[in-house]
């Protein structure tokens, strides 16, 4: 950690009564920042606001969040800013929301060694060994703090010397990676699972969809089955930190970096520079 | 809170780098204690050990846990002791377990106003408005810290002026309540959903199954469908705090307290007194 703040004050701890600890009752954003500038901050804050609405947590003041993220982003040339919003201290013992809880803002700055272009080191992935739960409608796509399935999945990926595992539900639909969203090219179309089936609907996922639209590519948000993987012409993992990471191998099958990689990457980079967040 | 300890020392906070906060990466037990004596402590510690195994968290030393729970239980005549074990401080940013994390023990004592006999105030329940996710096999029954579905469900119960909601998966199977396990009598048989389908396999659930066996009742652990509710002859909610709580109404349908209530209750109380945990 380069630095951390709770509710705007330098801090290294939170109260034992925080509902984020007890129940994972909160949300988070992982924001990449370079040269003091948080990327896609508007997108991160918009998703956070949607998550707050889903969990009935009052959305903290946006101007304050922007100032706190900017403070963290300024600590090094490249920073990952983790922004956590919990429902705050419990007002009574037990699961129920009592009402009147005061949301807590936690901002942590991590050193970030921004890697080389991921196109030079495509990702090795495979299907995860175990199915994940289909997220209930109220929580689908929400970047909440209940992340045990991802913890177990990414640990499996490390054990298998993979960069990522593709998570499937028990109906053999692929919902994405443990820390990434998934894009495929199949039949000349760029396909990604619908936001409502994603464990997290990524900010970078939205940027890639917008970039594809600007480039006039055929795009579809629809379910991806395990069988679809055998017809893939190109594929990417996406998140705010890795950007657009081409997949170079799905289990034993090699994949070339698709011709759409460079134009999509260029669009996303321009958006990162061009969007006026401050 | 009457008192709280982290790793055996009086504390009121934990580090911002704790994986329990970031991912819900940990487990908990809610232990009822009277006259300084934690009830069913062996059962709680056995379940905690199973949860630690499921999450690959090293189980903390049992003698130390017993001493810390006993210290908390001694703070008042009736205490709820919450024992949380997290994977501890993160060794790097990101979901993956790095290995070598040091589990953290959090013990919190809460004042407990042990209510009157719940048989005098049977529970009002109804089916929850939204389905819950079927837990993945690796996490089924494990009392981990990912509890957002329960938070939303119990909050719904409060809003509807119910004591509890019955949670169903999308295949219309009832997995239990938000904070309780469910027992029904139907066709002269005591039925409860299998542990593998429970969100939490309760310590009290195990005690009730053992009590029923001692009484020679016909018992089955099998799926309960929504349709089964119309054939119910008696029903209970169970957990370590409320014990055996008869259900008095499922939605609009009233239910009498079943004849098995008193003998089951007596068995469970005797077990609470008789088990030598210390």
Describe this structure in words.
- The structure is a homodimer of 278-residue chains.
- The mean pLDDT of chain A is 95.
- The radius of gyration of chain A is 19 Å and the shape is globular.
- Chain A is an alpha+beta fold.
- Chain A is built from 6 helices and 17 strands.
- In chain A, the strands form 2 sheets. In chain A, strands 8, 9, 10, 11, 12, 13, 14, 15, 16 and 17 form a 10-stranded mixed sheet that branches.
- At the A-B interface, strand 3, helix 1, strand 6, strand 7 and helix 4 of A face strand 3, helix 1, strand 6, strand 7 and helix 4 of B.
- Strand 3 (13-15) of chain A pairs antiparallel with strand 3 of chain B.
Key phrases:
homodimer, 278 residues, alpha+beta, ten-stranded mixed beta sheet, six-stranded antiparallel beta sheet, 6 helices, globular
Structural topology:
The structure is a homodimer of 278-residue chains.
Chain A: E1 3-6, E2 9-10, E3 13-15, H1 19-23, E4 26-34, E5 37-38, H2 41-55, H3 62-73, E6 78-86, E7 104-111, E8 123-127, H4 148-159, E9 164-168, E10 173-177, E11 181-186, E12 189-192, H5 203-215, E13 219-221, E14 224-225, E15 234-239, E16 243-250, E17 253-254, H6 261-274
Parallel strand pairs in A: 8-9, 8-16, 12-13
Antiparallel strand pairs in A: 1-2, 1-7, 4-5, 4-6, 6-7, 9-10, 10-14, 11-12, 11-15, 15-16, 16-17
């Amino acid at each position: 950690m380069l630095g951390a703040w709770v509710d705007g004050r330098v801090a290294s701890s939170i109260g034992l009564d925080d509902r984020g600890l007890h129940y994972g009752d909160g949300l988070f954003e992982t924001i990449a920042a370079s040269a003091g500038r948080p990327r896609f901050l508007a997108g991160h804050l918009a998703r956070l606001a949607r998550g707050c609405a889903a969990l009935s947590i009052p959305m903290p003041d946006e101007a304050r969040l922007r100032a706190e993220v900017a403070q963290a982003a300024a600590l090094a040339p490249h920073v990952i800013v983790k922004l956590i919003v919990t429902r705050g201290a419990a007002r009574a013992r037990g699961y129920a929301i009592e009402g009147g809880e005061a949301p807590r803002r936690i901002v942590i700055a991590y050193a970030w060694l921004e890697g080389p272009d991921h196109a030079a080191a495509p990702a090795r992935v495979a299907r995860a060994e175990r199915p994940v739960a289909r997220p209930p409608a109220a929580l689908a796509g929400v970047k909440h703090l209940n992340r045990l399935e991802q913890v177990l999945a990414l640990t499996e990926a490390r054990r298998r010397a993979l960069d990522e595992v593709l998570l499937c539900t028990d109906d053999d639909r692929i919902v994405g990676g443990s820390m990434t969203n998934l894009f495929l090219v199949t039949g000349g179309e760029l396909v990604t699972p619908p936001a409502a089936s994603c464990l997290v609907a990524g900010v970078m996922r939205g940027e890639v969809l917008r970039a594809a639209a600007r480039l006039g590519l055929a795009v579809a948000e629809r379910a991806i089955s395990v069988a679809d993987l055998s017809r893939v012409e190109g594929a990417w993992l996406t998140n705010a930190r890795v950007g657009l990471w081409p997949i170079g191998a799905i289990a034993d099958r090699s994949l070339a970096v698709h011709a759409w990689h460079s134009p999509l990457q260029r669009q996303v980079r321009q958006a990162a520079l061009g969007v006026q967040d401050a």
